[in-house]
Specification:
The protein has about 375 residues and is of the alpha+beta class. Helix content is about 60%, strand content about 15%. The chain starts with a helix and ends in a 6-residue tail after the last helix.
């Protein structure tokens, strides 16, 4: 009898808990439902953390970089990545990480510089040290860097390029341009896609036909030749900032078409919904109905679409810069850095020149996984 009473109490408790959960779901907003489902997507959460870290690197590039990305030193040309150690050659352990000095010698067969560890010189790695002066965000002066070693020691986490420039510092600086060009480009595409797609879907008729024919014309053209033609039209003597905005506008003028079609399809279905009809009967203006009722009703889908569009922008900039038609030196982006990897002999000698490519892969995969999670969360009632 006691056993049956215990089962009855547990059943009642479980039923009460389910009722509380149901009540919580029924009164939750659309954004709460999205968040509850999104946080169950472990891969998307991990990808969101990676994306956040990449944008944090882009925001704090100057203090995170150990050296000036433009500082050249032929003595360190094609220097391999510096191993960070905690145990020295004699087996003694240290709490603070350190690097060894290096010795150089010329290979008589290949005439290449060969670097070996000089175990007689040990350089501890210090954190938050003074280094080369910089201006954070171009107006905050500073000289504190995340890590560094005392001169004449050097620490090259990703190795050095042909001019002896620290590749880690250059990749960190490249993160700023490559990640923000996707964000800025998608923002412009967002405005064009929402505006033209919304007008096309809401009004229909002749204006819908004109906008759809323009979209079909742009989508029928080969993407890469179109990018190359528009990029080649930009003056080669433009400064890096102007070239940056020029490439961003080019990518945005082409990338808005897919979002506009999604918005048009949603507007075609939403304009017949009861809340839209109620707004018209209440005397709300068309602008109010579109911006305050229809756009928020499909905001979750727009966020998912935009998240998936950012990696496409990053790949487009990387491809254009790699071909020499996008950002150009002295601008630093992942695509510009990958130009050094065009020489097969250089890659065979210094495979670490492909590290910017690994950064592109990491960013694109993380943004795609994040977009998948947001897309699933956009349908919080689905399984």
């Amino acid at each position: 009898m006691a056993f049956l009473q215990s089962l009855f109490k547990r059943a009642n408790a479980a039923s009460a808990a389910e009722m509380l959960v149901d009540d919580k779901v029924y009164v939750a907003s659309q954004w709460q439902l999205m968040w509850w489902k999104f946080r169950k997507h472990k891969l998307a959460i991990a990808a969101a953390l990676v994306v956040f870290a990449l944008y944090l690197v882009a925001l704090l590039a100057e203090p995170l970089a150990a050296y000036n990305p433009e500082a050249q030193d032929a003595r360190h040309a094609y220097r391999p990545p510096t191993p960070v150690r905690f145990v020295d050659a004699e087996g003694k352990a240290y709490l603070r990480p350190f690097v060894y000095g290096t010795k150089q010698k010329r290979d008589l067969e290949t005439l290449a510089l060969v670097y070996t560890d000089d175990t007689s010189k040990l350089y501890p790695i210090h954190f938050f040290v003074k280094g080369y002066p910089y201006k954070l965000w171009s107006f905050i002066p500073g000289e504190i860097h995340l890590f560094g070693v005392e001169d004449p020691g050097r620490v090259f986490l990703f190795g050095a390029d042909a001019q002896g420039r620290d590749l880690f510092s250059r990749v960190v600086y490249g993160t700023r341009l490559s990640m923000t060009i996707g964000l800025v480009g998608v923002t412009l595409s967002f405005v064009l896609g929402i505006l033209l797609g919304g007008v096309s879907g809401y009004y229909g008729g002749t204006i819908d036909m004109i906008i759809q024919r323009v979209i079909e014309f742009l989508r029928s053209m080969p993407t890469i030749p179109l990018w190359m033609g528009l990029s080649a039209a930009l003056p080669a003597n433009w400064p890096p900032v102007r070239m940056y905005f020029g490439i961003t506008i080019i990518l945005s003028l082409i990338g808005w078409t897919s979002l506009a079609r999604v918005v048009r399809g949603r507007f075609l279905s939403l304009r017949e919904e009861d809340f839209v009809m109620a707004g018209k009967v209440a005397g709300s203006s068309e602008r109010t109905i579109i911006l305050k009722h229809m756009v928020p009703a499909m905001m979750s889908y727009i966020i998912a679409a935009l998240t998936l569009a950012v990696p496409e922008m990053i790949l487009s900039e990387t491809a254009l810069s790699f071909l020499g038609l996008g950002l150009r030196y002295p601008a630093i982006s992942w695509g510009v850095l990958l130009q050094d990897a065009q020489n097969i002999r250089a890659v065979a000698t210094a495979p670490w020149l492909l590290v910017p490519g690994a950064a592109v892969v990491l960013a694109v995969l993380s943004l795609n996984f994040l977009g998948d999670g947001l897309r699933d969360a956009a349908d919080p009632y689905g399984r």
